[in-house]
Amino acid sequence: MATFVISKRLDENYKFEFVSRKGKTILTSDSYELRFECEEDIEKLKIALDSATIMRFKTSSGKFYFRLIIDKKEMATSRKYTTQLLMQRGIDEMMRAATAAEVLDFASNDFVFPEIEAFQD
Length: 121
Description:
Layout: E1 3-8, E2 14-19, E3 25-29, H1 35-48, E4 53-58, E5 64-70, E6 73-78, H2 84-97, E7 102-105
Parallel strand pairs: 1-7
Antiparallel strand pairs: 1-2, 2-3, 3-6, 4-5, 5-6
Pfam family, one: DUF1508
Protein name: DUF1508 domain-containing protein
């Protein structure tokens, strides 16, 4: 099942990523100062995905990517793809699975594993 993963950037702002069922990041959002803004935009994306505008681009190095625009606001940018077919598969996966995707919040940065120094005593 595909998921939305909320996490923090290095500048302490929040972001979400839409991750495919195979664990590949399909798209990444812009930065949000507050976590609830990030959560609200995920819900907006789920509700308005059918009416979203998808703009396709090609980089100067020949890679392909897309931007997702909802209500004249750029919500997220995809990862770079080597071919148009792979980019289209990413778009199809997003359109098929995003509305039912669960949201995982990893923004608290509570690490499950202890620091290495704790084992050096």
